[in-house]
Design a protein that fits this description.
The protein contains 16 helices and 18 strands. The protein has 460 residues and is of the alpha/beta class. The protein folds into 2 domains: 113 residues, Urease, subunit C, domain 1 (Roll); 297 residues, TIM Barrel, CATH 3.20.20. The strands form 2 sheets. Strands 1, 2, 3, 4, 5, 15, 16, 17 and 18 form a 9-stranded mixed beta sheet that branches. The longest helix has 18 residues.
Length: 460
């Protein structure tokens, strides 16, 4: 017996992927507990499950799986719109040291992590993101940074894999001058404590995934320790790769980041490599032969002037690519789908690259596989978790089976998401959160932002 029946919608299953997935006009989805029980036509499922405690009429709506974003830094929303002296940011290296570390991460507190993560989780859920892979960065918030992050995620109702960055970087000290392996050990301990509460293979909404900052900010010994840690805990690894210019790594190690990571044994099919911008053919060979998954973050890469990742070539090679966004800009997944869809066409002067179905796969099936969750999420299929969106399109043209996929690259905006389910529970209804008080979440986040801004000399 089902607990909930969603009826009358255009059901876009995306099973096994967007292109081959069935699209059912006047479709229905039956939910029991945390899982999808059945997907089919409305008449068939209404006849089968005619006495239910609850049903949702999705007439005129699209019913589809929730979006999955594979790289976030939710505390970063505290820096949104901060009126700093941007003339200091003349290169990505400046942005990393100033904006990323000095103005944000090094002055982030546990209370700030909690407030910002609640806000970010709310905004993402309301625009259709039901799962994220979150890397928390804030060396002076240790120990306990991840307890603040997971408390926020639990309250709001998001699904997440979470880890704290392992780094030898010393706050306030240039990494060109000195690093400290003891700092990395604090990061390992923080991840270990999280994994004891949220096992990597656990059945709950939150799972642990080891965070590692970069090959550049860790010694080979720490990178080897990260691989050992991940193997012992059975958790995956998330790590920034080839975001900074290749020359920095070559000057330090005589090798690129993928080369260093392969030689230290860190790479594997459980690794989610974020960015992967400045890579050559040999680097792509390394990612491909190690089965590494890539999280593409086109907006933050553009902000830093870092260049454009070779995503079409990665996909051609069979490398799994998904979408991340760092929480730098809007938290609306529709903007990232559209930007990725357009960016590679323009950059390569080829309009045939990244067709709509492939762009949408970046936040569905590809993203589920990147997190090792393809058996749980990423499509509407019996037995998978009931992470479901009901979208009421604001479109100038009919949304039918033939046009539904193009809608997500041409027209869709996150505000058109009407209802969101995670694990079978309605967390957004008629565009409003059901789990937390949105006004209180916003006010709390703004207060923590003010505290952080004041530390940067900004009186608000």
């Amino acid at each position: 017996m089902a607990d909930l029946l969603i009826t009358g919608g255009l059901v876009v299953t995306c099973e096994k992927d967007v292109l081959s997935g069935q699209i059912i006009p006047d479709g229905a989805v039956a939910v029991r507990g945390t899982k999808i029980l059945e997907v089919g036509g409305t008449a068939e499922l209404v006849a089968k499950y005619n006495k239910l405690p609850r049903s949702i009429d999705a007439s005129g709506c699209i019913v589809m799986p929730g979006f999955i974003i594979t790289h976030t830094h939710m505390p970063y929303v505290l820096g949104h719109n901060m009126p700093v002296d941007f003339s200091q940011l003349q290169s990505f290296w400046d942005m990393l040291q100033k904006m990323g570390w000095e103005w944000l991460e090094d002055i982030t507190t546990g209370e700030g992590i909690y407030a910002a993560s609640r806000y970010a989780a709310v905004k993402m859920l309301k625009s259709g993101t039901t799962t994220v892979c979150e890397m928390v960065e804030g060396p002076n918030a240790l120990p306990g940074a991840l307890s603040h992050s997971t408390r926020a995620i639990e309250e709001v109702g998001l699904r997440a894999q979470v880890g704290f960055e392992v780094t030898e970087r010393i706050p306030g000290v240039s990494i060109l001058e000195k690093m400290d392996p003891a700092r990395a050990e604090k990061g390992f301990l923080e991840n270990l404590e999280l994994l004891e509460r949220y096992p990597a293979k656990g059945e709950g909404r939150i799972q642990g995934r080891l965070g590692v900052h970069t090959a550049y900010t860790n010694s080979p010994e720490t990178l080897k320790a990260a691989r050992k840690f991940a193997d012992q805990q059975g958790c995956g690894i998330q790590i920034h790769v080839a975001e900074i210019p290749r020359a920095f790594l070559v000057e330090k190690y005589g090798k690129s980041a993928p080369q260093v990571l392969e030689e230290t044994g860190l790479l594997g099919t459980d690794v989610l490599a974020v960015h992967c911008i400045d890579v050559d053919d040999e680097d792509l060979d390394i990612l491909e032969r190690n089965g590494v998954k890539v999280a593409h973050t086109p907006m933050t890469n553009s902000l830093g002037g870092n260049g454009v990742a070779r995503v079409p070539e990665m996909l051609e090679r069979g490398i799994n690519v998904s979408l991340g966004h760092d929480c730098f800009f809007t938290l609306d997944t529709s903007e990232y789908i559209r930007y990725a869809y357009l960016l590679h066409k323009a950059h390569n002067a080829n309009p045939m690259l990244l067709p709509p179905f492939q762009a949408l796969d970046l936040v569905l099936g590809n993203a589920a596989r990147a997190l090792g969750l393809e058996e749980r999420i990423g499509s509407l299929s019996p037995g998978k978790r009931a992470d479901i969106l009901i979208i009421r399109p604001d479109s100038p043209t009919p949304i039918a089976p033939a046009s539904a996929i193009s809608y997500f690259t041409m027209t869709f905006l996150g505000r058109e998401v009407e209802t969101v389910l995670v694990d079978g529970q309605v967390v957004v209804e008629k565009g409003r959160m059901r789990t937390v008080d949105e006004e209180e979440v916003l006010q709390n986040c703004q207060e923590e932002a003010k505290k952080l801004w004041r530390k940067n000399g900004i009186d608000v």
